[in-house]
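User: Modeling request: complex.
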Amino acid sequence: MSTRPTTHPLRPLPAGPRGILIDCGTTAVARACYRSLQARRMSGLLEAADLVPGATTVLVDGIDEPELLAAELPGWPISVEPEVAGETVEIPVCYDGPDLETVAKAWGVSAEEVADIHSSVEYEAAFCGFSPGFAYLEGLPEEFHVPRRDEPRTSVPAGSVAIAGPYTGVYPRSSPGGWQLIATMTNPGRLWNEHREPAALLVPGTKVRFAAVRV
Amino acid sequence: MSHIEILRAGVLTTCQDAGRPGWGHLAVPPSGAADQPSWRLANQLAGNPTGACALETTLNGCTVRAHRNVTVVVGGAPCPVTVDGRPEAWGQPVKLKAGSVLDAGPAEVGVRSYLAFSGGLHPKSSLGSHSTCLLSGLGPAPLQDGDTIPLGPSPAHPPLPTQWPAPWAGISEEIVMKLHLGPRLEWFRPEAVAELTRGVWTVSEHSNRIGLRLDGHMLRRSDTAELPSEGIVAGALQVPPNGQLILFGADHPTTVGYPVVGVVGAEALAAAAQARPGTRIRFAPVPMPHWSKRA
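Assistant: Request completed. Predicted assembly structure:
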């Protein structure tokens, strides 16, 4: 299944003397742009120290002549369909989070239905951030988006599965956090392992499903 | 045993090398020595290859015991240096005998002194770097009294004095930083550039390897929408909703949710690493390049 590359407006913005932030406008174009930059880098056409995807952007850092890349970008062909369908990572979770009732109320459903809805979606890791091993997972339909908590928690346990805005995420280690906690991953140690390649279980582009387990 | 022993870790002493750039897509901060030129020079003077791991102190230095003969260079923030209680030279190679105790005292100016040992330090490495990261917890933990760190083999040919490179950078009480405007200058009112040019900020006490908080004029935004999380580089000057500037350093988060008005270059980052609370910071804005103008 291949889609003809089409031209999406990519807007280069300066990020210091050696960086470019590419504003892609939408998440889908940002993901496709990231894949395209990765492919270029793999084939030696792009020398960069770091490629960092964001929600609707890609940061290219550590390049010698940003103006050359910037000049090319506006007409760059980007294919928004994934070229290869990767495997889906399944994450076993227990829907027992302290904000489960709050989320159920916001969605207008029961706590059991929150689990059913949340575990029925196929997510995709849009980008990583916050902490090594943490990925912003997209896919939750818009009617289920909830705001962050008014008061962030000073400590969220490792493995907490949380939602906020368009995203779902799993905290890889104990840290402060402001998202709504709905479930717990049974084995959060899988999220980050420095001795594995890649160290992160969820890298940009990974497909993810949550599987409810009962305890 | 060829190692050093930390007798006094000081307020914060960490192991630092070139860091772990290239893992930003996995939310891994670059880390590495905060004052790169000083770290590099200390290693050169100790006869080490580029990239060797050294100690980075914070304000009040540290004390170490050598468990083999080793050459050490204390550089970066100037401080009194003693070996077994006798004064020794700062910024130059000093020979330590096995069992000797070297003390790097409180910084006279600046913040971070570097202790480079011939052979380099070999603590726990993660993702190819020995650097401690305060934000992510990767790399060795900040040092504590009693910790030991393995030393690598001594270099065969220590450098001759005639090969010594450029002098140590000065440390001043007022730093003017070139600020490359963008990426998100458009999120601010048109007068933002004039405000950045005129303003004087002071480094807040709430500053560390992750970033410097700057007290002073609050920069106001024209666009108050929520910024979708995006990647940033070291040296990014971020403006959170309260308007207080944050200049991100080596252990910066890989993505942020507030707009970055400009980015300072490597030279300014090194100066920022030696800026004590109270240091005055001014900016010399560099206009956005022509290619970034909206068509």
